[in-house]
Amino acid sequence: MTRRHLLACAALLLSMTGLDPALAEFKPTRPIEFVVHGGPGSGNDVFARALITIIDQEKLSPVRIQVANKPGGGSATAAAYVASKRGDPHVIACFTNIWMLDPMVQEAATNKLLDMSLIARLVVEPALVTVRADSPVKSLADFINAAKEKPGQLKQSGGSIMSRENVVRQLLMKNTGARWSFISFPSGGERLAAILGGHVDMIIIDPSEAIEQVRAGKLRPLAQVSAKRLEGFPDVPTIKEAGFDIPDVPQMRGIVGPPAMPPDAVAYYEDLFRRVSQTPGWKKFIEDNQLEGGFVNSAETRRFLGGFEGRLRDILKEAGVKIVR
Amino acid sequence: MDIASGLLHGFQVALQPSNIFWCFVGCFLGTIVGILPGLGPAATVAMLLPLTFKMDPTGGIIMLAGIYYGAKYGGSTTSILLNIPGESSSVVTCIDGYAMARKGRAGAALGIAAIASFVAGTVGVVALTLIAPPVANFALSFSSPEYFSLMCLGLALVVLLSGPSLLKGLLALLVGLWLTSIGTDLFTAQARFVFGQATLLGGIDFMVVAIGVFAIAEVLASIEAGEEAKMLPVPRGIRNLLPNWEELKACRFAFVNGSVTGFLIGVLPGAGAAISSFIAYGVEKAFSKHPEKFGQGAPEGVAAPEGANNADSGGALVPLLTLGIPGGGTTAIMLSALVLWGVKPGPLLMQDSPDVFWGLVASMYIGNVVLLILNLPLVPAFAQILRLPVYILFPIILGISIVGAYGASGRMFDIALLVGFGLLGYTMVKLKYPTAPLILGFVLGDAMERALRQSLMMSQGDLTTLVQRPISAIMLGLAVLILLLPLIGRFNQARVRAIAEG
User: Which of A46, A105, A186 sits opposite B186 (nearest CB)?
Assistant: First the structure.
């Protein structure tokens, strides 16, 4: 055997033992930190803990996964924390739309979602356009017409100006030329109380919040903010089906890692959450919370968010929000 | 199901041994959570939520609710003993509670807090049992103008909290209003007063401000006053550690006031327990025959806010259980817990799941008794803490303060803020500025600003909307009256003096 042969064999062996980056497999060796941008009990916290419960039940992870609450500044504190863990394969975070929005409008929020390692999109949260059940408005078209008759007089209750409800309102107003006002309330309870008390005329609300009010005959759903009809509301048209062709504005939750996370670690987590999304526990969670499942992988998530960011920026600019980057 | 048979059914559910056990566990955990500053009921309920998935929903909600209302019992302990508010709803308790402790009546203050909590907590549950549906409709009739006027009424109480100088009180109030405006504005998504600090985008945590200006400032001022020589008096004998007859008699009205104010404000989804405790304290002082004793250790000043924050729990469950509307952080988590267990919280809860509704209501009667039994024996034990020499006591206060501020958010930045607020509070004490108005402004300012902007957006900029709605007009009128009273009083004094001299 010549020396050249020896070298070739060595090279072959090396590649087989996994030192070749393409074949290397990441395995977590210490507990994984799962960063969420809200305090205990916030929507994301509950979501992350539900994921961990499923992972534990199905024994999908060899190491413990711990929630790390990083509240403050919407998502800014959590995003800054994740960004500071550059390249760390033992840190993941739960992102939502706000991770994309905060850097757009806040000077102090400097860490962009697209600069991080996107791992997967896990759920899309649909919503329902609803009015009080005793309202004369029976369809979304009725509402738009009523708003046209009294420009600026009808009111919608919702969250922040950056919330999806406001983005949908902007798109509908642009599409139809109708105008109505958007009243911000900090908590879901206050938004709901404002419509049930008759102080506002319309609300765009999570199906899980709406379903009991609809069943009790307090609210009437007009349309769904979702790509296809929800199982719980087979008779309610989507906005498109109701005749208003506005772009899709998905409210997402997904998983992201620090910037420059090694590709094998990204692949590991992508696979982990793909397996989570196939468990019965996950399917039950999706059903109980009236969410739209549908795992989307890393590359696809990045491609979608790349286009979505520009669209959101334009919509918010039109809504009068000051954009900083 | 009518109320009597519903409640009877509820007691059958709640008196099952397992449910009594869960009720006890909840109340016990709640008391501990209440005593520990920084660890709030919302965080505790959220962390225990996964453990309850396998439980029966009735037992689960009984336990979680126990944590919720139990925390209000325990919250007064550190307020009274150490001037550290245990919960946001126990901040006002610091004012007269700590003053009582300094006079050697710590045990009495703790006892009064426990009794007021029991009385008002029970009244709150009775009201929840008897009048939940009509009261829920009253809550829904409150729109933004009413919330604005309610907050104005609360702010007008600054007059009662500001001590000798109204001007200094108003200045402190303005600082509080400014501090609460720090952070991201909900309406425009613009950052206000964050100075490029991403950590400030979410605003400043209420507990950090309260612990800073009360506890840290007090420790600094006491050290300067050279108090290491003398210890706080703690009377010996169990009898002297419990409230005496005069003190209880003085609290008669406060028990009623706390119950009614707490319950009514509790049912409003846009107002929290902290607001109800402030307003109950203000009402108590406004109607008192000797308002000058407030702040110097008036037992009513402990009974009214402690009662209010407990009646508030009963009130807050009204919109949650009859309408499916959560009024605050903890009730919102309880709502999602019900969803996770497969119970459908909403207007139909009472008829669909009578076990859950009536079982929970009945368990709260039991829970309040459990809490009284748990808390009263602790009173003499806790009062002993003040026997510690100051060179041990002050480091303990500082330690608990820091853990409390850190525990609320888990950020080191909040400890830096705590130091800053401690120094601010110390400066205020030195310059004889009252600190309570600052806290009042901080608690009410945010909600007041929002309500005003919402009202004006709803009315398209028409300010008269605030006085056209009757409830709003009445509350604004009361606020104006409270603000004018001292002026009239001063005018009257001047007139009397003029007559005497003339």
Answer: A186
